[in-house]
Amino acid sequence: MKKIAIIGGGISGLSAAYTLEKARLAGSLLEYRLFEASPRLGGVLLTEHVEGCVVEAGPDSFLTEKSWAVDFCREIGLGDQLITSNDSKRKTYIYLQGQLIPIPDGLAFMVPTKIWPIALSPLFSLNTKMRMAREWFSPSAQNGEHAGEPNDESVADFITRHYGREMVDRLADPLLSGVYGGSASQLSVQAVLPRFVEMEAKFGSLGKGMIAARKKPAGISARPVFTSLRGGMQQMADAVAEKIPLSSLRTNTLIDSLHSEGGQWTISTNGESERFDAVILAVPAHAAACLVQTLSSDLAEKLREIPYSSSVTVAMGFDQTRLASLPTGFGFLVPRSEGKHIMAVTFVHQKFSGRAPANMGLLRCFLSDTHNDQLLALNEDAIKKIVREELRQILGLDAEPLFTRIFKWKNAMAQYTVGYARRMEKIQRLAAQLPSFALAGNAYYGIGIPDCIRSGQNAAQQVLTALSR
Ligand SMILES: Cc1cc2nc3c(=O)[nH]c(=O)nc-3n(C[C@H](O)[C@H](O)[C@H](O)COP(=O)(O)OP(=O)(O)OC[C@H]3O[C@@H](n4cnc5c(N)ncnc54)[C@H](O)[C@@H]3O)c2cc1C
What is the CATH number of domain 104-215? Predict the structure, then answer.
C-alpha cells in the first residue's frame, strides 16, 4: 500500500485528491491524506449567502473555453448546477476621465478586428486609432526584428510595439489587472498572451492573426464566456470533498516541515510526524518554498522568485431601485491613471442570473495591493469608506448598501512575470530531482480555476506514475 500526502486544500489540492480517489476506486493500492491549514477546504473558493444574494469572496466564475473545468464539474456531480454568463448583456466599460466608456465591439481582448466601432469609440485618441490601422501592415516577424526572439518581454512592451502606450494604459493593463491583480509592465507576454506571441511570429500583425484564427473552422461555438455554479464557486470544493473519504481529510493542519530520506517522506505538523511514499505540494509558491528549503535550497529560491499580489473584494447589496442608473453590462475596469483604489467592479446580478433577489442588485469591487501597497493593512471601515466614495464618483451611487462583505486575500495571486518560462523550466528540473514529488497550484501552469484543476490532476498522475516504477 503506497501512501501519498497532498498539502493544501484549495482547488488544486482537491482535484489532485479526487484523481487519487478515482485511482483508488479503480483498484490502485494506495492511501492518501490531504492536509489543509485552515478549518475549511476550497482555499480562495469561498461563497457566502447573504440576504438571498450569492456573494463570492474569491473567484466568481471560470472561462468556459477551458472546457476541462466544466468536465470536472460534471464528473463530480455538478452538471445540473452549471450556469453561464448572460452574454446578451455582455458589455464592459472603462472608466476614463469621469465617464464609463464601453469597450467597443470588434476588439478581441485588445486586438482590433473591426474598423467602424473602434474608429467611432471615444476610448482611444486619433493617434492610437492610426496606430491600429498601421499595425495591420506590420511585417511578419519571421523576417523581422523579433524573428526567433528568445527573450521574453512584458505585456506592456509587446502591446506598445503594436498599438502604442495608450492601448496599454486604457485597455491591456486594466484587463490584466482584473485577472492577475498585477501590472502589464511586469507580466510576461509569453506566459500571459502566448497566442499573441504566436500570431506576431506568423503574421506580424495581431489583427491579421486574429482574423485568420476566426476563419479556421475549428468548431468554435458561440458559447458564453464565463461559467459558474448556481450556488457559488464553493459548491465545487464541497462536491469534491464529499467524494473523498473523511479519513483522508485533515483540516486545521498546517504542515510545518517536510523531510525526505531513502525515498520516504516525513511530514510534520506541530511536532507530530507521519511517513509517506509521495508528496504533492498544492500550496502557494511562497509556502512551498518554506517547506522545501531544507530539501533543495535552489528550488526554494526559484519558488520564492514568484511574486504574488494581494487583493480585497468588496461585495455590496443594494435595493434595486437605487441602481436604476447602472448601465447594462457586466461591469467596468479602472485604468491606473485614474488614481482610484478600485480596479474593477462586477455588476453581479447582471452578469449571472439568480445571484440576487429580484428587488436587489449586487456589486462586487476588486482592489489590489498593486494600486495601494497599504491596502491589506486598512480596516474594514476604511475600505468600505473608500469603496463607497469611489462608487459615488464613478456611478453617482450615493445609496447606503443593504449589506457589505469584505474579504482580504493575502499573497493569493501568482504573478507570471517576465522570465516565467525560464523560471518554470528550472523549477520543473529541480522538482524532478525530489523523489515521488509534484507541485500543483496557481503559480505554475495558469492562474485560473481550470488551470489549477488540471495542475492538481497532472500532479496526481505524476506521483502515481513515479510510484508505479
Ligand atoms: C480574489 C480572487 C479572485 C479570483 N477570481 C477568479 C475567477 O473569477 N476565475 C478564475 O478562474 N480564477 C480566479 N482567481 C484565481 C483562482 O481562484 C486561484 O488561482 C485558484 O483558486 C487557486 O487555487 P489553489 O488551490 O492553487 O490555491 P489556494 O486556493 O490558495 O489554496 C491553497 C491552500 O493551501 C493551504 N496551505 C498553505 N500552506 C499550507 C501548509 N503549510 N499546510 C497546509 N495547508 C497549507 C491554504 O490554507 C490554502 O487553502 C481568483 C483569485 C482570487 C484571489
Answer: 1.10.3110.10
Look at the block and give the residue holding cell 447606503: 400
Q: Is 7 in the pocket of ligand 1 (CB under 6 A)?
A: yes
| 31: phi then psi, degrees, rounded to nearest 5 | -130, 145
pLDDT in tens, 267-323: 999 889 999 999 999 999 999 999 999 999 999 999 999 999 999 999 999 999 999
Q: Max Cα separation, the chain? A: 68
What digits encode the pLDDT tens for the residues 22-42? 999 999 999 999 999 999 999
pLDDT band at 144 (very low <50, low <70, confident <90, very high): very low
Q: Rounded to the nearest whole angstrom, what is the distance from the C-alpha of residue 452 to the centroid of ligand 1?
A: 9
The H helix count followed by the E strand count for the chain is 17, 22
- Domain 2-44+236-306+417-468, CATH: 3.50.50.60
Q: Which atom of ligand 1 approaches the CA of 44 most closely?
A: 29
In the predicted structure, residue 158 carries a pLDDT above the cut 60: yes
The DSSP 8-state label assigned to residue 98 in this structure reads T
Fold of 308-414: Polyamine Oxidase; Chain A, domain 2 (3.90.660)
Whether 2-44+236-306+417-468 and 104-215 share one fold: the answer is no
> Closest residue (by CA) to atom 27 of ligand 1?
10
Which residues make Cβ contacts (< 8 Å) with residue 365, sequence separation at least 6? 313, 314, 315, 316, 342, 344, 345, 387, 391
Domain boundaries, the chain: 2-44+236-306+417-468, 104-215, 308-414
